[in-house]
Amino acid sequence: MFRITYFAFFLVSYLNGIYYVIVHINYILNKLNVTCGKIYEKGTFYKVGS
């Protein structure tokens, strides 16, 4: 009985860790996307301007 609860707890924390990592990576990718998007927009804007 104790072993099962321990395993369940381990599984939950393990999945929680994976979820946190995925969310964190998603956040970083979004940040990069926004930054690259702004740089890209500026570049095209300057090209159009000149």
TrEMBL record:
Protein's name in the database: Uncharacterized protein
Chain segments annotated as transmembrane: 6-29
Organism (species): Bacillus thuringiensis
Alphabetically ordered keywords of this record: Membrane, Transmembrane, Transmembrane helix
